[in-house]
Amino acid sequence: MRFTTTSSVLICALMASSVIADNCKKGLYYCGSGLLNKGKYYDQISAALVAAGQPTDNAHVTNSLFFCLVDKNTNGNINFTTFCANGCQDGGEGNSDYCI
Asked: Where does the signal sequence lie (predicted)?
């Protein structure tokens, strides 16, 4: 019985961790807000903004557009594309996000 309980706890933990940290899909554009909803992207968003010479205030973190890199060695990494001054729109599952 102990083995079954331990196995169940391990399976639940693995499932929870996969929900918390989801990678972006290669080749799509994402709003910062969408990346934050996917998982632990705050540090990557901040680093991409700094690398592009952009501010790291809340508006730039959430309303900037980022490209999910295609290279197989950088799956889930992002590059800053542009700041969406009028807001950033979720393009829906499997589609790129875009500036309004």
From this structure: 1-21
Query: Is residue 3's pLDDT more than 50?
Result: no
| pTM more than 0.85 | no
Q: What is the DSSP string of 53-77?
A: T---SHHHHHHEEEEEP-SGGGTT-
Nearest alpha-carbon partner for 80 in 91, 68, 88, 90: 68
pLDDT digits (tens, 9 = 90+) for 33-79: 999 998 889 999 999 999 999 999 999 999 999 999 876 666 679 99
Domain that holds residue 75: 22-99
